[in-house]
Specification:
Helices cover 56% and strands 5% of the residues. The protein has one domain. It is elongated. It has a two-stranded antiparallel sheet.
Length: 148
């Protein structure tokens, strides 16, 4: 699964506003903007996930289907490098990696996750930008009033 980061450039006003806010407020607002984009990617990966006997393993009865295991969620920050971080992953469906990258024993690569990621980037950026443009003015007003 791709471990690429989406770098948002050209949105100087949004970036400046986030940097001007208190760190806890900026992190909260960035997370609230990122969550719907992560859900969009999760849904795109689910749509792209292969279905059928050739894409399952013996453990799928125990662990569930690949599509059911695709999840998204926030990631606790160990460093302050990013405001917020979310990940989309295959959960207990470890065989998703075998399908994505292939194996030496005959499973051909089917990069369903990467295809979903790369085809969703523009929409995820649009979602995050729209959320930030909508939420940041409210956050700035609340901070100016002394709120959280």
């Amino acid at each position: 699964m791709p471990r690429d980061l989406i770098k948002v450039e050209g949105l100087k006003e949004i970036e400046a506003t986030l940097k001007a806010l208190p760190a806890r407020v900026a992190k909260r607002e960035a997370g609230r903007a990122l969550a719907p984009a992560a859900r969009y990617l999760r849904n795109a990966v689910k749509r792209n996930a292969p279905v059928g006997a050739e894409h399952s393993v013996n453990g799928s009865k125990q662990y569930g289907s690949l599509r059911r295991n695709i999840k998204s969620g926030s990631v606790k920050q160990k460093s302050r490098r990013f405001f917020a971080s979310y990940r989309v992953h295959t959960g207990d469906a470890f065989w998703g990696l075998f399908i994505e990258y292939g194996t030496e024993r005959g499973i051909k690569p089917n990069p369903f996750f990467a295809r979903a990621f790369y085809s969703s980037q523009r929409e995820m950026l649009r979602i995050m930008t729209a959320q930030l443009k909508k939420r940041l003015p409210e956050a700035v007003k609340a901070v100016r009033k002394g709120g959280k």
